[in-house]
Amino acid sequence: xxxxxxxxxxDQPIPTQENMAAETAKQKISDIQIYSMPDKFKxxxxxxxxxxxxxxxxxxxxxAIVMVVGAVxxxxxxxxxxxxxxxxxxxxxxxxxxxxxxKEDEILDEVKTDEEMDCGAISxxxxxxxxxxxxxxxxGLVCLGERIASNCGKAAATIETKDGILDFSILGxxxxxxxxxxxxxxxxxxxxxxxxxxxxxxxQCSYNIKGLTDLNYEPGRLAQYVYSQNTIDSISEETECTxxxxxxxRDLQTVAEEEEIELTPGVDSDSDGLxxxxxxxIYTTNINNKDSDGDSYEDAAELSNFYNPSGGGRxxxxxxxxxxxxxxxxYKIFYPSAWQLEDKNxxxxxxxxxxxxxxxxxxxxxxxxxxxxxxxxxxxxxSLPDLIIQPIQTTKGEMQVLYSVDGLAAYLTKQGDSSRIYxxxxxxxxxxxxxxxxxxxxxxxxxxxx
Length: 450
Description:
With 450 residues, the chain is of the alpha+beta class. The chain is 33% helix and 22% strand. The relative contact order is 0.07.
């Protein structure tokens, strides 16, 4: 270390009080020791104020560069983090729309989309009751039944009826329900009749698939069952189906209620059980005498026991009735000789026309499962919980018979052999009166299996 001391000048003025004070201050300053870097080390350092300035500038420049580079990396990191976060939560707009569309399709289109099978044309309807003849072996019905049993696979067929061709479709499975639709084409209007009112409409019904399979029906019978429940004839106030056909049915019901005609028995002047029209046109009895032949038996009582109400002897011995034998279906039946017989399709459908007011129809249906009459009838109406079944009776021809609630239809089968069901219907046609109920009952009692 070095000390730097200041010497007094030769020309130093005479000390005064102020000068002495100043000198004293200088002396104090001169006594301060200053430490500095030895000269041998100064060569490697900045030796001048200019060098120090350059070093400072260089440091500032480098610091600025470092700060700029750091700021750039910081900004890129922040932006990159934001993009990474968005990529996990956001989807391009186009993909969002597509995803939403798929989800909406899954919600709105719940019907199973398997390939539809064409089951062809189906014929063989035996009557207005929508029962097919030999439906167990009907290939079209079997096809439909198999599709229904196979988890309600899509299928289509055409049903040939006397009123035209209907389109029958299995639309598929929706929430465990099999959707069945029956379409009534616009050309039905050309056929006339009541069904023409439904031209261009459809009826769609839903059936629980487990409930259908639990029936354990053979395919043909299963399709027959579904079809019979899905027709216009099966609609009631409790029907839960949908479609324009249902709306049309309700409109027609309203009109029918306003114009409903209640059938009443024909005039029976002598109250003997035969209407005046029956006595005058069939049996030539006296409308004012209960016992026309005077044998102490009333006219209707004689008729029901196959006696001639207008004279002596058995009814079949008179010229009042004739016998019709149907060899192809194996039965015979009495009918009034004054009536006109009409036999169609080799005995498949037979009519007896009064020519005055109404007719009687006879048809036969196979019962391959040999069901008893009550069970067969329950399947026919397909509404067992609400079914009113009349007691089964035995006719004079030893046939079991079950009458409909209104008494205008009779279903018969042979005791011990129910392979065939014989159906006899009485229709008053457009009349408001029931004129031939006693004659109808006589015909039912006379039917025998041959």
